[in-house]
Amino acid sequence: PKKSETAEGLAQEVQRLRGELEYQSRFAESLQYFLERISSTDAEKTYLAILTNSQELLHAERVSLLVFNEATNELTVKAAVGLTTEVSEVSPMHLGEGISGAALQSGRPTIVADLEAAGITPAPPERRYKTKSFISYPIMIGGRKIGILNLTDKSGGGPYDLVDASLLEIIAPQVALALERAEWQEKANQYQLMSITDPLTALPNRRYLEERLTEEVNRSKRYEYAMSFLMIDIDDFKLYNDRNGHQAGDVALQITAHALKGSLRSADVASRYGGEEFCILLPQTSLTEALVIAERIRERIEHTSYPHAKTQPLGAVTISLGVAAFSPFVNTGEQIIWAADRALYDAKSQGKNKIAFYQDAFLRTPKPNERG
Questions:
Q1: 105 and 145: one domain?
Q2: What are phi and psi of 155, to 5 degrees?
Q3: 237-252, pLDDT tens digit by residue?
Q4: What distances in angstroms separate CA 329 from CA 104, 237, 324, one per listed residue?
Q5: Angle, vertex CA 239, rays to CA 233 and CA 241, nearest 5
Q6: Which of 153, 214, 347, 369 maximizes the CB count within 10 A of its CB?
Q7: Residues 331, 205, 194, 259, Cα dihedral to 10°
Q8: Is residue 223 situated within a structural domain?
Q9: What CATH number is associated with residue 232?
């Protein structure tokens, strides 16, 4: 061969190698970017990051992520990009059901260049898929089934192939770890919620209340915000239990909790303090405003329907309320709870179904015109 032809061939080979190196460099950068973006400890952010980055890496217009629940043996869509239906409207599928379920059951990816050629019934027209090609890729860790990543409608209209499957094979282990981490985070969040929630009434419990109260006290000190606190007790609740049984008592507590929640503003926090006692934290609320709220709650409970209300001494289920306000002399969580409890005791001693308030060393029952 002539020297010119040899030189030209060498130049072409160098150009090809340079192109491959540039591609590998870009891919390495994209992969690193992918791994960084799916490292969130927030489950929802992890799901979305997996979707958007898979979409970019494999040039897919539509991507969906399904996570496997071992307890129910079902796959549930956790997130999707480009679907014509809401994720919440997509029904779970059993392992082995449909293309995704079959792919996860086998542990092998399903790569389809043409649905019809593969003998698969196309999706309904209303879903508006642009191509007939897709990948359904199982995500697994050591044989444990984690989920499925589905990609379709490749940009440019081309089919998915083994090259795309190879890319997924590279990222799949990291996706699996990210999904496992997200799963554990969701469980941790559920346990955290359980630890601060009263199981009977579904209200926050005393632990959560005390944490929030400390936060609001600090905020009131720092910004000189008003803050008030209500301590609430169901009148003659022991008598209600004795006459009607503890199950009826539990129902009464649930009805009361529901009524309290319905009386709150968005920033207020109602909690079950213990037994038949409830508390309500009222951020940025003056004593005068708190008394108006307390009266509204008192009236609401008095007129709420309870199954055995007529058995009570007052002919209805009623509550007594103690109100305390943040002040220079009542300025810690413990002091506010103590002050509200003192006021509650005073309300009880006044004949029940009453409101009393405590501010500094001033303890009394408000006059009717002070209740609003």
A1: yes
A2: -55, 135
A3: 999 999 999 999 999 9
A4: 64, 33, 11
A5: 90
A6: 347
A7: -120
A8: yes
A9: 3.30.70.270
